[in-house]
Each structure stands twice: as structure tokens, then as C-alpha cells.
Amino acid sequence: MQSPVELPTGAALTPDQLEEKLRTVGIERYHIHHPFHKMMNAGELTKGQMQAWALNRFCYQAIIPKKDAIILSKSEDPEFRREWRKRIVDHDGTEGSTGGMAKWLHLAESLGLDTDVVASKKLALPATRFAVNAYVDLVTNEPLMVGVASSLTELFSPVAIGERVPAMLKRYDYITEDTLAYFKPRLQQAPRDADFALDLVRTWATTPERQDAVVNALLTKCDILWAQLDALYHAYVAPGHVPPGAFVPDDSA
Amino acid sequence: MQSPVELPTGAALTPDQLEEKLRTVGIERYHIHHPFHKMMNAGELTKGQMQAWALNRFCYQAIIPKKDAIILSKSEDPEFRREWRKRIVDHDGTEGSTGGMAKWLHLAESLGLDTDVVASKKLALPATRFAVNAYVDLVTNEPLMVGVASSLTELFSPVAIGERVPAMLKRYDYITEDTLAYFKPRLQQAPRDADFALDLVRTWATTPERQDAVVNALLTKCDILWAQLDALYHAYVAPGHVPPGAFVPDDSA
């Protein structure tokens, strides 16, 4: 994992100072600030651009339970594992259509995409795949608590969802509450998961080295989310250079 | 690894047919066709854009000997290893300044960059890091000969170098033969390496499954190269959205 910013070295931060630093990273770097998301919330995306977003983001949704299983596999603590496995249950559900992944496929289908094509990932942007796999690499290669810290973008997702869902319902006539069923449970799940992870990170990261590691994990995670939107913008907004082999929306064909 | 195109299933191709298919992939998908490279060869890049290219591509140069070491580590055959290790020697040299990586740093320095900053990779685009690491993941996770096949972009690099070097010398007054010293030995090394790899792939990939695997490896490698130029274009050409924390050239600040 690369360190994209220089962090001050020296004395360890207090847990409250560390939390403030992590929250500052999120406030400054979370993908809610990306031009593609701003366009989405402003009602400026074409349906084809919205399809490209849903199709590509499925690749991200699809690796979430895998990266959570890797995190689970690194823990020696049944209490931790009992709590963390809730994330896998949320994404995979208790039967076919109840999990977050199935709800994301439903969102994609509601936007007019073929769910088999979405699920195959074969029309996703290569840059999406590379960014998403960087998340798997991070939790694979870093210590357990650094992987846990990379999940802390969930501290900021309720704000994003709170902005996005009403904006999408208002500004796109083909989007309904049913389309966006994925997001509603996330408003409860994300804060529950983020509070648990934040407590652990505050307790574990008591040295400058560990604090650097968890802050950098959150920065890398923000980069992973940001890079996915950069790739969408490049391919589908401006200049609109779709890489060879990737999804071509009808309305920009 | 994702399969971005559907390949015909059924009977195995002959070695010559397989080679033709691999060469077709390269002809269609090699990054020589990317708008960023076309701009470079046409003399249309600013010095800052050229710096961004050199700084980011260093990340790619830097993982080459690592991915070759992973490939080496998967072979049981001293003859193969003796041949493949030449690649590591070429990139790392026999002393400090003689290898390809050192020559790339020299290129970056000649363009006005601080080599310590370049070598640290900390100002590289996150998308560059993700794409480059996808190459490491590919050779790590796939069988030896699939990793070997991913190197076959070298079949096409002499053409790219043959176009690029004269174009750069002619169209950018701050670029000299000394700046581009990296490329000259590549004109001998790449064909030697590519011929060796192609012979092995032709001999190994005798079933439809293996043939799919080697063709997809080359496609993924082309995607990895293409995605790096997509990210440069997005950040530094149009719309010029530099992701948070990445290199900002003087001439576009």
C-alpha cells in the first residue's frame, strides 16, 4: 500500500485525535465530492451514464462479501467474527433476493440492464476491476485492523445516501423507490458497522506507526472509490473514450 | 482474471492460428492506439503532461522485475529460469545506473522531475497503482504459462518505440537521445524476450481452455496498459481532473 500523504511523525495521537483525523480524511476525500456524483445528484446524467455507473459499481458490490470474508479469516476472536459476519449476511442475504448484491442487480435491471451481463462483469471498465481488486489486495496483504480501518468510509456513506436517494427520486423520472431498495437498509447497516469498526481502530491504533497505517488504509480506500468514478467520467462523460471491450450505452453510441 | 471478450469454443487452434490470434489482439488493443500516445507522438503534449506520463509510468517500470521474479519462482526448469532472469538483469542492471529502471529515472529527471519523488511513487495516480498491481496479481494468481503470455505485449513494443523515439526527438526540443536512453536497448531486448515467450506459449497452449487463458492474459495486459493512459488523459488532458493528492504539473496548475 502506498502512502499518498505525509503524516506527521512523533508522538501518538489520542484516540479522539485519531478519530478526528480519520473523519477529516473522509470529509475531504470521500467520493461524494467527485464530479460524477455531483452530476448524478444534480440530475445531469443520461440514462446510459446511469447504467454505466450501476454496471460498474456491481463489481464493487460483488467483492464486498469476499473482502469481508478475508477480514474474518484473519481474526482469532469469535466475538469479532460474530459481529463482522453480519456484513456478509447483509450483502448475500438469507435467500436468493434478500441481500445487498441481489438488490444491486435489481437496481441495474430497473435501469434497463440485463442482469446476466451485469453479473458477468465482462462489460465493466478494466479500471473498475483494477480498483476493486486493490481493495481485496489491501485486506489480504495488510494486518487485520488495517483492513478494518479501510471499511471506515462507511462513516460517511449515510450522508451520501441521504443526499443521493431523494435527489435521484426527484430528478430522474425512471427511478423509483423500488429501484433504490438497496440503499434503505444501508442507512441502518452502515452506521452499526462503522461504529463497531471505529471503536476497534481507536483501541488498536495507539502508536504512530499503527495510526499511519489506519489513516493510509482509509486514504487508499477513498482512492479506490474515487478512481472508479474517474474511470466512469473518462469513459462516459468527457471526453467519452470508452476503452476497447467495455459497455457502450445506447445514448452515447 | 475477467474475460473481456467471448472466444469461440470448440476445437483447439493450431499453434500458427493461436499466434495469429495473439498478434491480432496486440494489433487491435495495444496502447499505441491510445489518444494519449497519439498526442505524444504528434508533439501535442505539454511538458507537464510529459512529466505526468514519466512519473506514472515509473510505477509500471518498478514492478516489472518483481512480476518477472514471481514468474521465475513458479518454474521448475533451470533452462527457463536462466532465460527469464535476463529480464530482471535488464531492468535492475549490473550496477546502480545500468538497468532499465535507472534509465527510466534518468528520463524522468531529464524532464525536470525530482527522482526521489518519482521513485517514492507517492504522487502517482491511484489508478496507475491499481492497474500496475493488477499485473502483479495476474502473474501471482495464474499458472506460469499464463503469466508468460501476459508478457507478449513485447511483440508490439518495438513498433511503438520505433515510432515514439524519432517523434519525441523531432517534436520536443527538451528531449534528447540521452533522455531516451531507456528505449534503445529495449529494441534488442523486447524481441529476444517476446520470441522466447511466444515459443513457450505456442507449445503449452494446445487445448481450447489453455488457448482462452493465454489470449485473455494478453487482453488483460493490454487493458492494464490502456487503463494507465486513460487515467493520464482524464487527469492531465481532458477534463483535467487530477485526483486528490496526485502530481500537479506546473503548466496546468
> Ends of chain A: how far apart?
38 Å
CA-based gyration radius of chain A: 18 Å
CATH fold group of chain A:
Heme Oxygenase, Chain A
Relative strand content of chain A: under 5%
Structural class of chain A: mainly alpha
In this structure, how is the largest beta sheet of chain A organized?
Answer: none
Please indicate the count of domains of chain A. 1
The name of the CATH architecture of chain A is: Up-down Bundle
**Mind telling me the CATH superfamily name of chain A?**
Heme oxygenase-like
Low-confidence stretches of chain A: none
**Tally of helical segments of chain A:** 11
Shape of chain A: globular
Percent of residues in helices of chain A? 55-70%
Secondary-structure element sequence of chain A?
Answer: HHHHHHHHHHH
**Extended strand count of chain A:** 0
Written overview of the protein:
2 copies of one chain form a homodimer. Chain A has 253 residues and is mainly alpha-helical. Chain A contains 11 helices and no strands. Chain A has a single domain, classed as Heme Oxygenase, Chain A (Up-down Bundle). Helix content of chain A is 67%, strand content 0%. In chain A, helix 1 (15-29) packs parallel to helix 11, helix 3 (47-73) packs antiparallel against helix 4 (78-92) and helix 3 packs antiparallel against helix 11. The longest helix of chain A is centred in the C-terminal third of the chain and has 29 residues, at 208-236. At the A-B interface, helix 7 and helix 11 of A face helix 7 and helix 11 of B.
